[in-house]
Design a protein that fits this description.
80% helix, disordered C terminus, mainly alpha, 14 helices, single chain
Length: 307
Amino acid sequence: MDNQSNKVLSSNAIGVLYGALAFTLWGFLPLYWKLLRSVPSDQILAHRILWSFVFVTGLLAWRGELSKLRDVLKDRKSTKMVLLSAAFITANWGIYIWSVNADHLVEASMGYYINPLIVTTLGMTVLKERLNRLQYVALAFAAVGVAYMTVQYGRFPWIAVSLAVSFALYGLFKKLINVESTVGLALETMVLTPLTLVYILYGCFRGNSALMVASWSTLVLLLLSGVITALPLLWFGMGAKRVRLSTIGFLQYISPTIQLVLGVLIYKEPFSAAHLISFGFIWIALLLYSISNTGLVKKGKPATEKA
């Protein structure tokens, strides 16, 4: 094997490692939010936005890359995409933090299992991508899984679907901007930070802000929420540059699997026969979806091709 092949293998191995680290940390993130359970979810969200902005902006300043923020904001269309992606990531973060601390981690994990299938649906409906037959079958299995859960429990699994849809739409608008992940996070949190600061200061005025009533250990955890948010994103970016998209597709199931295990085994959330059947349909859908991305199945050509 020549040196060039060795370099490729080494790069792939490093990429897989970074990707696995990112999705593993995302999987264990509920443990972090549980430590902040004494703080209302809306305040956790506000601090997560604020300290994420501080951390990633400081990182870009250290790299000498702050000009990248201005370059994106010069374009009106990109600015609109930043605002939309900021709105959807705020919704996603807020729902997720609340669901974890309200003991709905099992349903939250379902959301991230079905997220790739929602992304596929958006690709078909918004970007006019054509799916192969196996992908249509995968979407049907996922729909059956969600429908079964709805019928069995008499309520629509809104947490799972909201998380999946909000994160898929966030990914769509990020794709339309096409900026590096750290720059994207800096821009998204930048447009949200003024509102976040007003919200935190209002809480201080009312006397119910975590800044005024929480312990020092809780305040440190709130401050570090920016690091815990940005770190896996950095690892993901480094991994995605080195490996194929299909590899990232397989790795992304690490996160909801860890969340599901935490919810059932650590936090003793219910996992009934109905859950098993519903998740079973979704797992079959993901298996079919993964197979469809291996190149073994011929994909349809896009309806339109860019020059």
